[in-house]
Amino acid sequence: MASVRAVTAEFIEKYHECECLWKINNPFYKNKQKRLSALEALLQILRKQDKNANMDSVTKKINNLRCAFKKEHNKIKATNRSGVGTDELYIPKLWFYDLIMFLSESDNASRSSKDIDEILNEIATTDNQVKT
């Protein structure tokens, strides 16, 4: 049986390759068949560690990795915003933080799409006010 770290690193690398699972602006992001085949590939990697792994295990693993990354990433952003000196900057403790850094791309993409929605709503509101 492979070590937990080795399997997790391989899992993260494969997850990075499967952009349809995490990159919102990927053309296959909403394609269920592509997403399912990507999850199947991740399942095969997870089975190296746990022979009884199933699709539920894959989604839990993805959610755990994403939550851990987000928590560390928010700590880093908080120290960068607060204006602390370079001696006091938060250094991530997750061993896989650099491996999973690609998730910050999807965070930016979702944030910009929300910004676009807000802008469109403001335009619609302004148009309605001008018409009345």
Automatic annotation (TrEMBL):
<feature type="coiled-coil region">
    <location>
        <begin position="29"/>
        <end position="68"/>
    </location>
</feature>
<dbReference type="Pfam" id="PF10545">
    <property type="entry name" value="MADF_DNA_bdg"/>
</dbReference>
<feature type="domain" description="MADF">
    <location>
        <begin position="10"/>
        <end position="108"/>
    </location>
</feature>
<protein>
    <recommendedName>
        <fullName>MADF domain-containing protein</fullName>
    </recommendedName>
</protein>
<dbReference type="InterPro" id="IPR006578">
    <property type="entry name" value="MADF-dom"/>
</dbReference>
<keyword id="KW-0175">Coiled coil</keyword>
